[in-house]
Amino acid sequence: MTRQSLQPSGSGTWFGLLLALLGSAVLLLIVAPLLGIVLATSVSDLSRAAADREVTESIKLTLLAALAATTVSAVAGVPLAYLLARKRFWGKGLVLGIIDLPIVIPHSAAGIALLTVIGRQSPLGKHVLGGGLVGTTAGIAVAMAFVSIPFLVNAARLAFMAVPERLERAARTLGASPARVFLTVSLPLAWRGVLSGMVLMWARGISEFGAVVIIAYHPMTTPVMVFQRFNDHGLRYAVSVAVLLIAVCVTLFVVLRLLSGARDRRGDHA
Amino acid sequence: MTRQSLQPSGSGTWFGLLLALLGSAVLLLIVAPLLGIVLATSVSDLSRAAADREVTESIKLTLLAALAATTVSAVAGVPLAYLLARKRFWGKGLVLGIIDLPIVIPHSAAGIALLTVIGRQSPLGKHVLGGGLVGTTAGIAVAMAFVSIPFLVNAARLAFMAVPERLERAARTLGASPARVFLTVSLPLAWRGVLSGMVLMWARGISEFGAVVIIAYHPMTTPVMVFQRFNDHGLRYAVSVAVLLIAVCVTLFVVLRLLSGARDRRGDHA
Amino acid sequence: MLDLQSIGVRLGSFELADVSVTIEAGEYFVLLGPSGVGKSVLLEIVAGLIRPSAGRVLLDGRDITGLPPEQRGFSLVYQDYALFPHMTVRRNIAYGLPRARSARPAAKRRAAELAELLHITPLLARRPETLSGGQQQRVALARALAVQPRLLLLDEPLAALDTNTRFRLRKELKRINRELNTAVLHVTHDPEEAMALGDRVGILLDCRLHQVAAPQELFRRPSDPQVADFLGMRNVLPVGRVDDKICHICGVDIHVSSLTAETTHIWIKPEEIILSQEPFASSARNQFKCTVVEWDPRGSLLAVRVAAGDLSLVALITHASFDQLAIEPGRQIYATFKSSAVHCF
Amino acid sequence: MLDLQSIGVRLGSFELADVSVTIEAGEYFVLLGPSGVGKSVLLEIVAGLIRPSAGRVLLDGRDITGLPPEQRGFSLVYQDYALFPHMTVRRNIAYGLPRARSARPAAKRRAAELAELLHITPLLARRPETLSGGQQQRVALARALAVQPRLLLLDEPLAALDTNTRFRLRKELKRINRELNTAVLHVTHDPEEAMALGDRVGILLDCRLHQVAAPQELFRRPSDPQVADFLGMRNVLPVGRVDDKICHICGVDIHVSSLTAETTHIWIKPEEIILSQEPFASSARNQFKCTVVEWDPRGSLLAVRVAAGDLSLVALITHASFDQLAIEPGRQIYATFKSSAVHCF
């Protein structure tokens, strides 16, 4: 229900003012660096970076590798999300915990961990992958998938949980098999949430640096290039690439917000 | 309501099997690298790393810097979360968007952006901070705060939203001022969620690599050290430090799970 | 004591217009209306939790429309009790009392008194989640009364309780109102509850206040057919042409002893219509041959709809009469009622 | 047709034990009980959505306890309709019909027929969220009937509707049951609804099935006092010592014409007790001097509780009688009822 909660004079007191002041400090922490970097770059630097083939190639690589990681992960991650939203089984808490692990594991350590599986020296890398995935686009995609898959699975799980189970139960009594119920009822109704989970995973994949820099310094993704230019050429050369990269990510993020807008607005009144 | 939804034969069909198989693939992606890194390290390497003063100093530095970032952020972030959970105001959607920005901004780019504000050459760094925060513990803490504050604010916001507004309204009619309502009703009831948001922020701060490596290569946090050892000495020397770091993060993560356990369990039945 | 002057509010698609009402000191005032009509919103306006988009709230003549809730001295009890789950019953009750160290013994004493008044003394050390619904509502009442409110606001306080508890608490509410002489503004959707409790009852329908009157008066003189319908009065008929104590409705003549020139509607109570197989001689002035249209059980009675020409009436009869008359759709029977049984308004 | 044999289920703190019931082909069977007693769980067991922890479900003698819901051919209608919000009404109705390209014209025809049957033809192109509650429930019924179920399962199908729509749909349900000869298992908490609809009614109280009988039979012979109480029968009294048509209850002698040796309880309907200021001569065999204890409004009537010695009775009277008798607690009046008005069971 939409209800305005105008509390007469409640927001005008010293308490409301204090809340607003403290809140502004947080916003400042986030906004100041972004403003700073935009002010630090010049139009000429920016246009030179945008015309630099090395930069555009790396942006293309980053977008495509993250997209590949997202698409392949969705095929397995969305069904898993449905399973976690609907079934109760032994060890479910453990599975939920495992899914969230990549969020807390430091990304540089995650990169090292991935090397032990898909690196040149690992059994899998040596015998199955023909020398490992180090320095390949596939390796970059795996690193991106590892650090960003929790975002997809969790968003999809919440989307499926928001689909009333009664709709699925009613469909079953109308003669639909579990697979048909999933395809005709659950997935269409959860679609918006699943899609925004995919966009979020894509954005996280694009922005990944720590794990990717360990798996593949070359081919160079844009976050790695920001680091490399800063190390090799200094701040000024990193800033323009960083601004371009931030622009790409913020654009994706706005798309994501619009996608999940309806849900967020609902949440605000709960 | 607790309700078992045993669907006779529903979980035994090919569809249930397919879901379980696809789900296992996701789990494998996450578990394999972690198993890999544990198998790749030897007890002697690990104990040597644990005895290495450089390593233990860096772990201490990392834990303390992230703790400082979390504590200071909580003072401003928790009131902001309350404001966002309770009040409607013009531009609220924008504020919510800004808070989530650090999640999608690539961390290496975030590091560069922070440099433009607290770096040696920046106006703030030059004149106010006495030469900038580059290479200082304070700079590390700021970088950690920037990338991890969304986790605290969002967790706290959800926790406050879960407190029934009617309790606060009833308290107001009993003569309590907005500040007293916040301190005696809202905060105690949201405490568990706020605390788990703080632990999550702490864990994210500890695991930060991209932004920190640009602000401060020295003093060296553990995620940076993993990267440095890999670059300078090779995989074997990185693995043992990475395993130690992962152990610290996973421990924190388990604490977090236990804290938010009650809420998660409720969520599963929703 | 409290004056609402032309209160209006618009929240999303929902609107409430021009509500004016006065509540006297010590009065038990019930606001009655179907759900979703804005009764609770009105209550929160009085409490100061929502600011009205139009109109003023006056307390003893002073404008308090902009006064924050904590300075009004009206306490609010919600349907779901809204007890603080992290405090014991005692601390819940004492929440609104002075907290200075010196005031603590007095607060403790006051909590004990209120617990006594509401028969919850044995529960003082317990947590709200361990209590039954009725016990929780008693605690909520004690907590609200602890601050000695000028006006106690009750938002559907009995709706979530089972029948027996509801009846018991209903009596308590009336007793508290009388013993403490605290004015009460009670919001409900249940006409029975309103009639049992209210000194006066205000009827809120279609987002506007239709009538304010004592309970008996409402049944005697509902202000319009919507009010009559909401109160469950069947057989309310608009009066057409009138000839000296006889009104012509749908082609039928009905004798009405209390008919006046101002009468716009008549009400024939369903339980005062007698059905019989044959006509019988009696003092009752109205007797029609009718056809049974349909019937429905209504609790322990049966509602039989009969038609005499275009006139359609509902009679309430017992199961025994139903069996005896062998009621079924299409059956011809006689409906009889006294001219004095017809109420005019 | 359908046999439930000793069904038991335990879900968390909630338990249902040893429910056995048979539903005949074409029968309208109502399961009646207060909320939270497991009626819906039982329905979902029949549908195959929950597996019982004990007992078996037989269809025409075949054990279907483990059969998945989509193979049972029972369709389920929920209280909140559970329409698919992303499909039009037509696609909702056709959801359970064959989907092969060749079957589409037939499916479309069938959907049109059902829309006709339920008077929702003009709504076929609309989305569920644009419909009223009553319309949504009609769509849910059409969707459930489309699959030509052997048994239609209804879970409180009328509870979310307003009174008028509820009455109209109640009639539709009965008509559908008769016209299509589809057996119905209908779950409700409303005794009135159960009585109006059921060929037979099963009463589920305290997590066990107390009685299964035709509606009239339930009122004539409730199996035990809990059933009588749940059906709203006031004045059910346990019979003590019995002397030839007289039973002694709480120190009072009551004449009961139908008294037998098996009688364990008697029921005096509150509306068959006459209250009067003075005793009067009549054929009624039971007349006591009583004291008024309390009174409460009950819809358009008033329930007056009177005490004769230790015997406590409730009488239902009209507002007119109430005013005339000047009822108030403590007042001495006479209660009279016929010996034939006392029901035995």
Chain-wise SSE layout:
The complex is a heterotetramer, with two copies of chain A (270 residues) and two copies of chain C (345 residues).
Chain A: H1 14-40, H2 43-51, H3 53-86, H4 92-104, H5 107-118, H6 123-128, H7 137-161, H8 165-173, H9 178-207, H10 210-215, H11 222-233, H12 235-259, H13 261-269
Helix pairs in contact in A: 2-12, 3-7, 3-9, 4-7, 5-7, 7-9, 8-9, 9-12, 11-12
Chain C: E1 2-11, E2 14-23, E3 28-32, H1 39-47, E4 54-59, E5 62-63, E6 74-77, H2 89-94, H3 104-117, H4 133-146, E7 151-155, H5 163-180, E8 183-188, H6 191-197, E9 200-205, E10 208-213, H7 215-220, H8 225-230, E11 236-238, E12 241-243, E13 246-249, E14 252-255, E15 265-268, E16 274-276, E17 286-298, E18 301-308, E19 311-318, H9 319-325, E20 332-337, E21 342-344
Parallel strand pairs in C: 3-8, 3-9, 6-7, 7-8
Antiparallel strand pairs in C: 1-2, 1-4, 4-5, 9-10, 11-15, 12-13, 13-14, 15-21, 16-20, 17-18, 17-20, 18-19
GO molecular function (chains C, D): ATP binding; ATP hydrolysis activity
Domain Mop (chains C, D): 281-345
Organism (chains C, D): marine sediment metagenome
Q: In words, what does this structure look like?
A:
The complex is a heterotetramer, with two copies of chain A (270 residues) and two copies of chain C (345 residues). Chain A has helices at 14-40, 43-51, 53-86, 92-104, 107-118, 123-128, 137-161, 165-173, 178-207, 210-215, 222-233, 235-259, 261-269. Chain A is mainly alpha-helical and 270 residues long. Chain A has one domain: Orthogonal Bundle (MetI-like fold), CATH 1.10.3720. In chain A, helix 4 (92-104) packs across helix 7 and helix 9 (178-207) runs antiparallel to helix 12. The longest helix of chain A is centred in the first third of the chain and has 34 residues, at 53-86. The radius of gyration of chain A is 22 Å and the shape is globular. Chain C folds into two domains: 2-230, 3-Layer(aba) Sandwich (Rossmann fold), CATH 3.40.50.300; 236-344, OB fold (Dihydrolipoamide Acetyltransferase, E2P) (Beta Barrel), CATH 2.40.50. Helices cover 25% and strands 34% of the residues of chain C. Chain C is built from nine helices and 21 strands. In chain C, the strands form five sheets. Chain C has a six-stranded mixed β-sheet, with helices on both faces. In chain C, helix 3 packs across helix 4 (133-146). Chain C is elongated. The mean pLDDT of chain C is 88. Chains A, B: It is a multi-pass membrane protein. Chains A, B: The chain crosses the membrane at residues 12-41, 61-82, 94-118, 138-160, 209-227, 239-259. Chains A, B: It holds the Pfam family BPD_transp_1.
